[in-house]
């Protein structure tokens, strides 16, 4: 890995390139850099979510996820390296099963809304999906490990489930349940 930054304003990117972890320079709009940026944005949004009142177990999980996303970004920045381990994907599978177990079945699509923390979790979910698409696009052009794609896919699912959990946790007093899309089908079912 390249040397750690000792200063932030290096001016080396003024020509429209940036350095990868292995020392090579690529254009700032390179597919790899775009994927790295989406993962960084996701991690930053999770940081915003962590600034909200959260159940302790959710907070602990999100801190672990931030570290794993940093590993994922590091892996993307160093072609040929693997930093994100398969255990990280399995950890997300376990968390999905744990948090989903106590949630009621969905009657319809839900809106990305509710409590502030649930809404931020939905923003994180959509950024995770974008990061996943960027990784898929990169993988179509360059060889990358499968763990980043699997991780982002599971993480977006987990963030959806956590949004539902956070609405029910109702830590800000503004939630309590999912906010269902008012579809014609749901209206008919409720009328029956």
From TrEMBL:
In the UniProt record, does the keyword ATP-binding occur? yes
User: Which InterPro entries has this protein been placed in?
Assistant: CblAdoTrfase-like, CblAdoTrfase-like_sf, PduO-typ
Q: Report which reactions are catalysed by this protein.
A: 2 cob(II)alamin + AH2 + 2 ATP = 2 adenosylcob(III)alamin + 2 triphosphate + A + 2 H(+)
Q: Where is the stretch described as Disordered?
A: 1-26
Q: Which GO terms describe its molecular function?
A: ATP binding; corrinoid adenosyltransferase activity
Cobalamin adenosyltransferase-like domain boundaries: 8-165
The Enzyme Commission number assigned here is 2.5.1.-
The domain of life is Bacteria
Q: Where is the composition biased (Polar residues)?
A: 1-10
Q: What processes does the entry annotate via GO biological process terms?
A: cobalamin biosynthetic process
PANTHER family for the chain: CORRINOID ADENOSYLTRANSFERASE, CORRINOID ADENOSYLTRANSFERASE MMAB
Q: Which family does it belong to?
A: Belongs to the Cob(I)alamin adenosyltransferase family.
How does this protein assemble?
Answer: Homotrimer.
What is the name listed in the Swiss-Prot or TrEMBL entry for this protein? Answer: Cobalamin adenosyltransferase
| Source organism of the structure | Piscinibacter terrae
The taxonomy runs: Bacteria, Pseudomonadati, Pseudomonadota, Betaproteobacteria, Burkholderiales
């Amino acid at each position: 890995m390249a040397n750690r930054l000792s200063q932030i304003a290096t001016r080396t990117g003024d020509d429209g390139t940036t350095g990868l972890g292995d020392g090579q320079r690529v254009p700032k709009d390179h597919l790899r850099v775009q994927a790295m940026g989406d993962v960084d944005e996701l991690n930053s949004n999770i940081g915003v979510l962590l600034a909200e009142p959260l159940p302790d177990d959710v907070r602990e999980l999100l801190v672990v996820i931030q570290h794993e996303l940093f590993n994922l970004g590091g892996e993307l920045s160093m072609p040929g390296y693997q930093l994100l381990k398969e255990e990280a994907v399995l950890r997300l599978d376990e968390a999905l099963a744990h948090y989903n177990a106590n949630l009621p079945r969905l009657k319809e699509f839900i809106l990305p809304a509710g409590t502030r923390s649930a809404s931020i979790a939905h923003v994180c979910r959509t950024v995770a999906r974008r990061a996943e698409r960027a990784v898929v696009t990169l993988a179509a052009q360059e060889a990358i490990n499968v763990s980043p794609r699997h991780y982002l896919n599971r993480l977006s699912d987990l963030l959806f489930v956590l949004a539902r959990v956070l609405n029910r946790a109702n830590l800000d007093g503004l939630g309590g349940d999912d906010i269902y899309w008012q579809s014609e089908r749901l209206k008919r079912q409720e009328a029956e």
